[in-house]
Amino acid sequence: ERQEARPYNRQRLLVVANRLPVSAVRRGEDSWSLEISAGGLVSALLGVKEFEARWIGWAGVNVPDEVGQKALSKALAEKRCIPVFLDEEIVHQYYNGYCNNILWPLFHYLGLPQEDRLATTRSFQSQFAAYKKANQMFADVVNEHYEEGDVVWCHDYHLMFLPKCLKEYNSKMKVGWFLHTPFPSSEIHRTLPSRSELLRSVLAADLVGFHTYDYARHFVSACTRILGLEGTPEGVEDQGRLTRVAAFPIGIDSERFIRALEVPDVIQHMKELKERFAGRKVMLGVDRLDMIKGIPQKILAFEKFLEENASWRDKVVLLQIAVPTRTDVPEYQKLTSQVHEIVGRINGRFGTLTAVPIHHLDRSLDFYALCALYAVTDVALVTSLRDGMNLVSYEFVACQEAKKGVLILSEFAGAAQSLGAGAILVNPWNITEVAASIGQALNMTAEEREKRHRHNFHHVKTHTAQEWAETFVSELNDTVIEAQLRISK
Ligand code: G6P
What we know:
- In the C-terminal section; belongs to the trehalose phosphatase family. In the N-terminal section; belongs to the glycosyltransferase 20 family.
- The chain is an alpha/beta fold.
- It has 20 helices and 17 strands.
- Helices cover about 50% and strands about 20% of the residues.
- α6 crosses α7 (about 160-170).
- 6-O-phosphono-alpha-D-glucopyranose binds near residues 19 and 326.
């Protein structure tokens, strides 16, 4: 059979995600400039020798004309990317609406938006219709590029409807789906009007993966309680067909961060930062400006610490990098002004003519600047209210071999399950507790810091993104083979 004939080391992997790992800027009618975003996922998948990865997703720009679409597709093909073109209305209803205003907050335990809960079932329904339509558009593109034997790996909450669409095209397609956010308790998931339809579409996949065992367990419970299906140690069974469900905790490409610290520009930048903040301990937060990240709560905890520890006021600084995100969604706009207001108030209260306690940036930093910052930090504050994994905590640890700084980490981030033993774990809602943990971190002995760092550094070095991707894909291949054997018995 052709499927078997393709040597394993040349297996193609189609990675389907809402967003392609590129930023595209239009330079003319038929010309585009592309920049590949060298994030963790990209380097993870490029690093896996056994398969040849291609990306399918939205390029993040509106391209209404055919000339532009053709030119962009051509430019993207060189980067092994295949675009899905979504018009503005679909983006509004599917991406801003259903994905980021409904699923994202719900999966992070922030509930459904009030307006939708009350009257506007029409708006909910039209957003869900757009979500399904968008997922169907992704499926059309996958189907067009699919070759027998390919592995199709769907990513995240944007594409929960995709496994079903793909299996309708071709029931033999090997389909995996991975969620990068938490999957909430079934009691939360059951409030979603489209709860059953989404679960059923995900179950069409052969393998369903999550970052932690708890998220996998919540998903299986949702399927048993809401759909009445049978949960087994392997996954979920429906009329003899098994959907395998398991945990695959992601990691980072730690060597990339470790190597960056040897780059002369980075060393120079670290030197400048050390001089700039000489005599003060550096605390760092790096987050997308998202309500799940708990930025206001973190800043309020820092204020409480300053309030209660007058002797530290001129000896510590908090650098908060808040990367703007999803700026068309009103909730995100509100959060930006809320954070600005709190930062302004605290700097007004504790600042002097020459120094302020909080430096807040509304932008991202380039990779090298970020590495330098991680390396000079004494205490990192990752206080997400909920977070699928949170790789900032991993990146910080990877850059701390020299300094052995302290990680304060929310117990509601997936990373708490892997870095919990080395970090100071906190409940981010408890501002008193977070303020106390800041004191504990700043006063920690070098011996204790070393011990905690060793644990975390070892974990970050040995659980890489590449290993994560390899494990998921080989498990998907095995799952499909096992299912075929079961049927042929
Ligand atoms: C989270 C999601 C990703 C998403 C990223 C950035 O990490 O799990 O799927 O790509 O946020 O958000 P954006 O909406 O800009 O793609």
